[in-house]
Amino acid sequence: MQLSYDEIKLFVEKPFAFIERMGLLALELKPGFVKLGAPLKGNENHIGSMYAGALFTLAEMPAGALYLTTFDVSRYYPIVKEMNILFRRPARTDITAELSMPAAQALDIQREVDQQGKADFTLEIELQDTAGTVVAEGCGVYQLRPMEELS
Amino acid sequence: MQLSYDEIKLFVEKPFAFIERMGLLALELKPGFVKLGAPLKGNENHIGSMYAGALFTLAEMPAGALYLTTFDVSRYYPIVKEMNILFRRPARTDITAELSMPAAQALDIQREVDQQGKADFTLEIELQDTAGTVVAEGCGVYQLRPMEELS
After folding, report:
1. For burial by CB atoms within 10 Å, which of A58, A111, B79, B116 has the most?
2. Is residue A21 less than 8 Å (CB to CB) from chain B?
3. Can you give the CATH number for the domain in which A26 is found?
């Protein structure tokens, strides 16, 4: 089963109130590649750069967007197990984050779920400002699970 | 210089829009000890438990609250350098997080800033649901810096 572009965009930008309040943007969504953005406006900390919690969210959500564009959403769902985030420089502009995964890797992960009942995988992500400077680096551990567990 | 309880409470609960939107609560604020809370309502993910970004924020903000109650805010300020967060169980209720630091440790950190120009320190934190179950564990690396850098 594949979702439409409009369905995926809605699930990424307005899946629930926390994300919608932050103004998260799905800038590019295609199989194997996603690019998300977060506006500085409304997400500033007390010194005017983007708050760490907003950066964390922008580092975490692309995995969900990549799942929606790249995995079989009728058969599997992901959870986040762990995230490490390194704050390298103040984020003084709107920020973007890209994530990609070769189709073969997604198939391997899904095959592992079929065989083992679950599959852990790691995603590394960089957050960049509008000048291309890396402001934060994330490393997330996710687990893909079979959808039948939920039913 | 010490801030009043009401000033600290305001800085913790409404320091900027991102935190205020989440409804973060300062439940206890005293020198060497803080307890913060986050309501499930308004911070749910698509399956009704608390979203990872809200849990991250609840894991990160107590360090700022502890700074306000425990450090000399007229001479030093903290930044967050890195945070690792482990999501152990779904957070299905309001969630709380406590952080403590002996006065002697805070004095040691401030002394190191005076001598070295900055001081890194690590804070470990557990997030608990209303039954006392640990739903997430955070480990943050913070840096204390001299206030004169900002002026």
Report:
1. A58
2. yes
3. 3.10.129.10
The residue whose two tokens read 């070295």 is B116
Cite the beta strand spans of chain B per DSSP E.
25-30, 33-38, 76-87, 95-100, 119-128, 134-146
* B47: in domain: yes
If one counts the domains in chain B, the total is: 1
Residue B126 belongs to a domain = yes
**Band of pLDDT at residue B148, cut at 50, 70 and 90:** confident
Q: How far is A82 from chain B (nearest CA, A)?
A: 4
The strand pairing partners of A36, in sequence order, are: A26, A97
For residues A5-28, average pLDDT: 97
Closest-CA distance, B136 to chain A, in angstroms, reads: 9
Contact present, B47 and A147 (Cβ < 8 Å): no
Residues listed for chain A: 151
Domain membership of residue B151 (yes or no) is no
B64-93 mean pLDDT: 97
Q: How far is A90 from chain B (nearest CA, A)?
A: 10
Domain span at residue A144? Answer: 5-150
For residue B31, tell me if it sits in a domain: yes
Partner A, chain B 71-100, Cβ-Cβ below 8 Å: 79-87
Of B11, B81, B85, which is closest to A87 when you measure between CB atoms? B81
